[in-house]
Every structure is written in structure tokens, then in C-alpha cells.
Amino acid sequence: MSHSFVSRINLTLFFLAVAACGAANAASGCNQPPIPTAGQTVTWTTAGSPYQVCADLVIPKGGTVIVQPGVLVEFQGHMVSVVGAVKAQGSSASPIVITAQGVFPPAFELAGGSLTMTFANIAGQIRSGPGKLTFTDSTFTGPNGLLLTLDVLLPSNPPV
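The chain above was modelled as a monomer; its predicted structure follows.
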């Protein structure tokens, strides 16, 4: 092999390594919210906000997430499946804000757990399923803020 060919290969490998490091640093820049294990309760704090959901997450059965007033959760093409419990308790002065880049995938998908939101501004899809879904003093906004109920699509799905 010629010296110039080896130099081009080395230069190409160098740029690939730099690109890989940049991608790894971009992914590590995601402020993912804490996820509980079964039997554990975690809090998504206002001080830790904004959170980015940049991977699919599951709140397991027996796990609980408390979301404090004023928390911002930005969904980036991924979702949270709720098998355990999410208790998002905003206030009129400090609502919880949920944003998403689109309507799919849903921001939250109820999968046998419970999702309770009070004083939340929701600009992402919430997909109901088996479980308990409660909204109080909350608003669905923009083209992405919607509640999808699958019970109207398939007769075998449980009603909302």
C-alpha cells in the first residue's frame, strides 16, 4: 500500500472517531428524568427540569413518579409507558408542561398503571389503555396535544 493511501485511511478513521465522539456527547447531553424500580418512588423536580425523554422509558409496576409543579418534560421522539404510577401535580401558578415533537409516538402511554395530572399543559399525545387516567384543570394544546382512546377503534379494548 502506498503512503498516501494509508494516510487517507488514517484521516478517514480520525474523522469517524471525531464524529462518533460528537454523537456520544450529544446523547449524553440528554437530561433524562429518573425512573423508579418496582417499589421505589422518584421525584421529577423543578430544579432538575427541563427533562428530555430521548429513549423509551417504562414506569414499572409498583414504581411511582411524582412530578413537581413547574416541571417541563420535552419528549424527543420517544415515550413513557406507565405500568406503575405517575402523579403530576402542578399548580395554577406553576403548571407542569409536557411537549412533544409530534403525535407519534405518544408522550405517555397508559399500560395498566395510573396517570394523574393536575394543572398540566399538554402538547403531546396521551394514549389511554388499561389503567386509570385522571386529568384535572389541565389543557391539551396545539396540533400535538391530544388524548387518544383506543376503545373507539377496537371493540376488544377496555373503555376509558
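The helical segments are 3-28.
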